[in-house]
Batch of 2 targets.
Target 1
Amino acid sequence: MRDEPRSGCPINAGVEMLGDPWSLIVLRDVMFGDRRYFRELLTNSEEGIASNILASRLKSLVGAGLLTREDAGRGHKARYSLTEAGIQTLPVLVALGTWGRTHCKTSRALTVRQELLEQGGPQMVADLQDELRAHHLGVTTAERPGPSPTERLHAAYQTAIVGDPL
Amino acid sequence: MRDEPRSGCPINAGVEMLGDPWSLIVLRDVMFGDRRYFRELLTNSEEGIASNILASRLKSLVGAGLLTREDAGRGHKARYSLTEAGIQTLPVLVALGTWGRTHCKTSRALTVRQELLEQGGPQMVADLQDELRAHHLGVTTAERPGPSPTERLHAAYQTAIVGDPL
């Protein structure tokens, strides 16, 4: 990452920060998979991310202010959390997922959560962001009745993988 | 681009196709700048895209079905048009622009169109997509009263660059 952006265009700014083959995939796994440790992100990777690529992406995401790294000290594993800027990448992930679902080959099990997010519209995205704020930033919000967005996404995924493996 | 995607995840599919530092920038210029020829895309590039990178991205975007290339024959310049899949990347561009505007350094002149798109919400994005369909695919839709999304974006940009150069 250079110090000066290539231009003053906000789309370019987003592309410069997030437009590479792995950064958004790592954020997706922290966000939807609650994978908070290096080992989890590495071994549960559907895309088979390589260890050195994961390490470099985590470092650049922390440097860019999208993740924080909590170092628990000698012998303990570092834990990653989303920042507010990281949580605000969710609409980018949803938009990319909508495009991918429509125009590319995808698996049923890995698509049900995307469909649920699209059906839920901006309100579900906002509710999920609130839930991520509570979980990653310790920001408490008013309790809402019924299952949370994360619970709904998890339930849909669990149902889907019974009939259709990844 | 490999034949098989890295996984069946729709977000990954979107990232695999669009997650690089230049593809979405080229689509942005075709979409918002109506730059349809190689020379226009090269010389008007705010980000200073290199000739060989532009050539490779145009080739891969045509190969991936996001652009079509109309070859007008010997001595004539090839003209690029958006496909339906290309037009459907607009929500990804808007989401990236929203994130970039909020979290990165941007210029006033290059941000007013982004703000207008955000204020207009999903309806303005849909209207702009209809306008792009008419312009790039020849699909005619019902005339709407008042200035079109493109005219509104252009007017906002023209006003902004008077007081604040790029």
Target 2
Amino acid sequence: LEGGRLLPVKRSLQALNPAEIAGLLESLPPQERNVVWEMVDREDDGEVLLHLADEVREGLMREMDTAELVAAAEELDIDDLADFIEHLPETVTQQVLKALDADDRARLESVLAYEPDTAGGLMNTDTVTVRPDVSLDVVQRYLRLRGDLPPHTDALFVVDRYGAYLGTLPLDKILTRDPDSLVQAVMEHEREPFLDTLSDREVAQRFENADLVSAPVVNEKGILLGRITVDDVVDVIRAEADHNLMAMAGLDEDEDLFAPVRKAARRRALWLGVNLFTACIAARVVGMFEATISQVVALAVLMPIVASMGGITANQIVALMVRGLALGQVGSGNTGALFKKEIAVALINGLLWGLVIALVVLFWFKSPALSLVIGLALVMNLGCAATAGVFVPLLLRRLRLDPALAGSVVVTTFTDVMGFFLFLGLGTLILIH
Amino acid sequence: LEGGRLLPVKRSLQALNPAEIAGLLESLPPQERNVVWEMVDREDDGEVLLHLADEVREGLMREMDTAELVAAAEELDIDDLADFIEHLPETVTQQVLKALDADDRARLESVLAYEPDTAGGLMNTDTVTVRPDVSLDVVQRYLRLRGDLPPHTDALFVVDRYGAYLGTLPLDKILTRDPDSLVQAVMEHEREPFLDTLSDREVAQRFENADLVSAPVVNEKGILLGRITVDDVVDVIRAEADHNLMAMAGLDEDEDLFAPVRKAARRRALWLGVNLFTACIAARVVGMFEATISQVVALAVLMPIVASMGGITANQIVALMVRGLALGQVGSGNTGALFKKEIAVALINGLLWGLVIALVVLFWFKSPALSLVIGLALVMNLGCAATAGVFVPLLLRRLRLDPALAGSVVVTTFTDVMGFFLFLGLGTLILIH
């Protein structure tokens, strides 16, 4: 690319699918990204844009005119279009809607009525349905007339004349069972339909647990609305995992690897500002002991050790809690048992490493009293760290905030403050008085 | 459960699938876990064990005798059995192998020959194959004779008489195309077969990008060996995401929420020990400036601020790098551009927050020189943090270590050491001399 040889790039682009092109674009710095984007086949524009992280997409869409955006939208399936349309300016949306036929418009509007993070928002309306009282032979003749099935169709859905969901007819049953059997004799009932208001996280969990490829979505009256397919669920799982990893560091999962510097700086600034504020609180705590430090400077030398051991302990527990909460394995029923375990683990490690650091300090500063101070402070701070590690994520969840935000800033501030306070406080008590 | 009413628990267990039972067991403290485990239907034992995190599984399997383990193994599919057998003691493995018929034993051994984290290790050998020169009608008659297809069969694979992979015949094509067409006229070639030695990460990426449900696995001669299905890929994606989240905190992704205290303490001890060692290095750096601190105690009060701002900056970049490396979006081609961006972002934020903290310090300590020292140190430390954040994960990857290990301990030590050194060093230069 750097040599300006565009033809081979263009040729290798054609061998990639839209998701791969999106991954490639995300890994390119802005200038090269625009060059490659220009070379993408116009037909793939819509799908590639959909696979991009929000930020990268916005960057590229700013450069497109209305006609290009409408053309990109026209190539998409209804469920993808529903995702895409949320990112379009109002004027373009109107044009896209106008270009659709009445049927597709009605379908699109039914999907758009849902929040994107619900079963209704994830679903596609391209379900193929059959009646329970026909034979498999009739089903097969119908399918042959109909032609290709929508992608990821592993089963047809059986509905009554009012459209209520009755059961699932897997394709392999149509192929392997006696053609004279009736649909109702062959269909399966195991696939419990998803309510349209179910959260996407719950949808993903059920897909994972039951190894589903597709699942029916119904409204509260049991009427079949559409289906969710595993490819969209994989995206939900990936997005949630990304979210937890990035949120622990105070970042957004849509952060672009090559976001414009000014934009990235502005976004990171917020978290750094919060941290500056909390670090000032920790500094205030140290400041309370200025007189002690001026008498025993060794306290200033050793205080980062106590704080950092607490930070590590708390962050390990936060990672465990964030995963447990995401998988629905941590709740009010087992918090007590979990806390008891973590406190015990922290105290054992506190005693072990407290003893080690006490010995190190004894050799270093030849002061038994100082050894005692750091050993005690370490044990107590790890106890505080375990408490914060368990309860801060739970508290955030209770406040309807993201438990992963407990990572880095919040919990570390707590362990820093407690570490400084315990160590310098004990130092004042034992070494000065 | 606490009230000792076991019957309703048993009844609700029967409504759960093995993956859900595994999730439930993981969320229970050890004692209750054993009670519920006893109530699980014996037929589900094998599948439930497979869905458990390694540690939880080991705990439960220690309590089972050989006959129970063999019985659990017998209920499993070949690819699941291959996973399961790795967790069995040698004597039990022998018995399980003896209980299999020759066909299944040969299949099992072909899967066991691969590392679990390769396409070969992920594959199942229950493929249904057809020849290219028969008609769809013949295929359908064959399927009807054969009966139910293996789970997640969305397509048959077309092979020549030597077993070489030729193409894919999706089930919906069999249903919708003219029964007189030949397989070779209808089959698809888009699904590129996976080489058996491909890494599971690469497999997952390709499934995600191409929205696959199943894919053929071949050896280097192109002979079809088996197939990989999306349910196993979803597990790979989940495991990798878990791994990154936990490894950033220095934990193993298989860590049991309710690991026995002694075991959990031992495992966490390692990371804490490493951190204690690196924190001592940071303390040594502070110790170099004891004389300076004893003259200007305010330096001890403020030094945690400089260090912690560096830690946050570095951890944000590490999170971005870990995700980028996992998705294959960061490589030697774009490291330079990425570094330039991150340095620019860090310096902008360094200038902004350096100015803010300088003003705060000016009001707090009324010392313009001290303000200058902390402002300068902050800018410089954020620059160091950006450098470490970009290059430490890359270095770890180069050393064939896990880039996520850069999180917390390694990078934070670096920013602590540099933060203390820069701040106290500048303090000595500007305030003392």
